[in-house]
UniProtKB/TrEMBL annotation:
Residues 21-127 form the PTS EIIA type-1 domain. GO terms for cellular component: cytoplasm. It comes from Actinomyces massiliensis F0489. It is found in: Cytoplasm. The keyword Chloroplast does not apply. Its main location: cytoplasm. Coiled coil: none annotated. This is Phosphoenolpyruvate-dependent sugar phosphotransferase system, EIIA 1. GO terms for molecular function: kinase activity. It comes from the Bacteria. Keywords: Kinase, Phosphotransferase system, Pyruvate, Sugar transport, Transferase, Transport.
Length: 152
């Protein structure tokens, strides 16, 4: 069964090879893509990429698990764990059931970038085989909720 993984926020698709972080670019945690977020609207609300259980929530990252057991990580910016939650507002509860598109975290990509961090957002299919994903092409601009990749 194929799973549509939706863009948690609007932005331009970047292949993981071009993400300046070895954990993501070398696919240590899994394949996927990244989204270079729109910085023109002040704050952005990152949403659930799939329906399921919100198994982990940190101010800078979250994992959603589908009913079939597939896990998707959304990481808001690179090295943003260093911020200790500053600049992120969490709207969802860890362990709660969520639907694709529901708000999880509000943040400001422009503020994160101005503070010296890269605001790129890796969206990772945890533990997936790379060949099981069909991704939107690099450079394509996605709206929030558009299909970023399908996980076959």
């Amino acid at each position: 069964m194929s799973l549509a993984v939706r863009a948690p926020l609007a932005g331009r698709v970047v292949m993981l090879d071009d993400v300046p972080d070895p954990v993501f670019s070398s696919r240590i945690v899994g394949p996927g893509l990244a989204i270079d977020p729109d910085r023109g609207h002040g704050t952005a609300t990152a949403t659930a990429p799939i329906s399921g259980i919100l198994s982990k929530v940190h101010p800078h990252a979250y994992v959603t698990v589908s009913p079939e057991g597939r896990s998707v990580l959304v990481h808001l910016g690179l090295d943003t764990v260093e911020l200790g939650g500053q600049g992120f507002t969490v709207h969802a509860v860890e362990g709660g059931e969520i639907a694709a598109g529901e708000p999880i975290i509000t943040w400001s990509p422009a503020t994160i970038e101005a503070g010296g961090h890269n605001p790129i957002v890796p969206v990772i299919a945890l533990g997936a085989a790379a060949e099981s994903l069909t991704s939107a092409p690099a450079g394509e601009t996605l709206t929030r909720g558009a299909v970023a990749f399908t996980w076959g």
